[in-house]
């Protein structure tokens, strides 16, 4: 049993999928899911649970699957996780629950993420009953930002009995799940269905509502009667490298590139009305999930050569293992230990090349990773028509600038404690806006903690009034 291999995920072949935007992985069948669930040892101490930031009872939901109760499996997961079909697809399980699975020590861990996805998809297909919510609202809470942090806080607060309104700047809720992560990795229909589940719990979502512009946080308290506000505005402000040529046509931030393609459907141009020009050869700078998504999107848009340009080695690549593997299989080419120096342009102002320099790794830096050092005289040029910068994102400053009394750190992130309390009374925050760009499940974990803190805060406030 210990050495048994985890069951493979059925997926489109690389040749097939690099030409379409349909989901790459097809999901376990019921038979495969049962066989994989049978691998679980049902450990009493369940170390896997300690690796889950929202503390899903993993052995319990797996037990339901092995005993043919997928409806109860999804109900068990939903006790802790409002977006399991999303998490089953995009969580970096290899660094979380699966890393701590006892089977990982001697063989391959239980495929917890794939089982979670199977159960969650079953739940979506059978339209299981929403969780029960109290009849009388306990108070009004506003959530700013409909990403994983805000949606999770909203769901948990609605279940506790609050009247919750989510204000979202874009025309669709979901945050990065809608505008960042591509369709071939996370179908938008899945995100919409999980968000519908939150609406069934009574959560109201107002789109095209920009905090700091359409209204301010203070107005929500003073004019709209909200008693607490949770800010989950994410990290949507792209970073650039500050190298020559970044203002040329054909240079994109990954955010802009992916938003044009995912949210504005540039891959369906001209039916969609949003063009995206990439030419034949594309360089993507960076090697996180955002970079892999950009590179694989460029391939699907028809680029002949797509290069990942990354200044460290493969061992330091931060993307999920599965995304890296899929990118390689699809033909993305890797220029590792390489840094861009300058973007070259044509007379008409379009990108024509990317000058790079080779790097070697020196002593570890503050992050604990070995510092990349340029190798003198090793410059070379990649002929490219477009460059996508995927080197990280920072916080959008709008809410911070328009909310007096809200403290931020030197990077512009809102300062909040573990529970989500900020420096301003009644205002809570969590997710990427506090931590800087991180993961879906960490943002969800922050949303959950903040929901608990908001509940306590309002209960105490009401008790004092009485
Ligand atoms: C391309 C890409 C791929 C990724 N892949 C993965 C992955 O595979 N696995 C993983 O775990 N993580 C991944 N991440 C990271 C993950 O998506 C984020 O950590 C997570 O979405 C953060 O959630 P959040 O709720 O804090 O913010 P977001 O998801 O950014 O949501 C914030 C929301 O707030 C809205 N907003 C912003 N300002 C305002 C305002 N003033 N008023 C109203 N609304 C506002 C935004 O429009 C947005 O909808 C990826 C990120 C990107 C960009
Ligand atoms: S650690 Fe692994 S084997 Fe043990 S209960 Fe968790 S998933 Fe099952």
Automatic annotation (TrEMBL):
SUPFAM superfamilies associated with the record: alpha-helical ferredoxin, Nucleotide-binding domain
Domain FAD/NAD(P)-binding stretches: 140-447
Domain Dihydroprymidine dehydrogenase: 17-123
GO molecular function, one term: iron-sulfur cluster binding
Domain of life: Bacteria
Listed PANTHER family: GLUTAMATE SYNTHASE [NADPH] SMALL CHAIN, GLUTAMATE SYNTHASE [NADPH] SMALL CHAIN-RELATED
Protein name: Dihydropyrimidine dehydrogenase
Organism in which the protein naturally occurs: Anaerosporomusa subterranea
């Amino acid at each position: 049993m210990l050495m048994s291999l985890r069951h493979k995920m059925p997926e489109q072949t690389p040749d097939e999928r690099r030409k379409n935007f349909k989901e790459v992985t097809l999901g376990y069948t019921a038979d495969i899911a049962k066989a994989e669930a049978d691998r679980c040892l049902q450990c009493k101490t369940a170390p896997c649970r300690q690796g889950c930031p929202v503390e899903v009872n993993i052995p319990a939901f797996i037990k339901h699957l092995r005993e043919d109760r997928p409806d109860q499996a999804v109900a068990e997961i939903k006790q802790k996780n409002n977006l399991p079909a999303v998490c089953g697809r995009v969580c970096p399980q290899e660094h979380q629950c699966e890393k701590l699975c006892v089977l990982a020590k001697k063989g391959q861990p239980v495929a917890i993420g794939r089982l979670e996805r199977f159960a969650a998809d079953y739940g979506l297909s059978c339209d299981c009953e929403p969780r029960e919510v109290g009849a009388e609202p306990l108070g009004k809470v506003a959530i700013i930002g409909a990403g994983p942090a805000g949606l999770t806080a909203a769901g948990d607060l609605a279940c506790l009995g609050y009247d919750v309104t989510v204000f979202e700047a874009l025309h669709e809720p979901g945050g990065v799940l809608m505008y960042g992560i591509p369709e071939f990795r996370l179908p938008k229909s899945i995100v919409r269905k999980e968000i519908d589940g939150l609406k069934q719990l009574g959560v109201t979502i107002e789109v095209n509502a920009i905090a700091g512009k359409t209204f301010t946080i203070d107005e929500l308290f003073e004019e709209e009667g909200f008693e607490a506000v949770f800010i989950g505005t994410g990290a949507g402000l792209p970073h650039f490298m500050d190298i020559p040529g970044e203002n040329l046509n054909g240079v994109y931030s990954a955010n802009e590139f992916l938003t044009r393609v995912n949210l504005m459907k540039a891959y369906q141009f001209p039916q969609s009305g949003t063009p995206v020009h990439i030419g034949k050869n594309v360089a993507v700078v960076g090697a996180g999930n955002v970079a892999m998504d950009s590179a694989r999107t460029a391939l699907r848009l028809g680029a002949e050569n797509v290069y990942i340009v990354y200044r460290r080695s493969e061992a330091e690549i931060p993307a999920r293992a599965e995304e890296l593997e899929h990118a390689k299989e699809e033909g993305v080419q890797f220029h590792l230990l390489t840094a861009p120096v300058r973007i070259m342009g044509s007379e008409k102002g379009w990108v024509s090349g990317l000058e790079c320099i080779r790097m070697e790794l020196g002593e570890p830096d503050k992050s604990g990773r070995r510092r990349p050092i340029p190798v003198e005289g090793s410059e070379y040029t990649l002929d490219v028509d477009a460059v996508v910068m995927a080197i990280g994102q920072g916080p959008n400053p709008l809410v911070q600038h328009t909310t007096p009394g809200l403290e931020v750190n030197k990077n512009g992130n809102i300062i909040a404690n573990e529970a989500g309390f900020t420096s301003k009374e009644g205002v809570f925050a969590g997710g990427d806006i506090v931590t800087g760009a991180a993961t879906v499940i960490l943002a969800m974990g922050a949303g959950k903690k903040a929901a608990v803190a908001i509940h306590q805060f309002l209960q105490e406030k009401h008790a004092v009034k009485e």
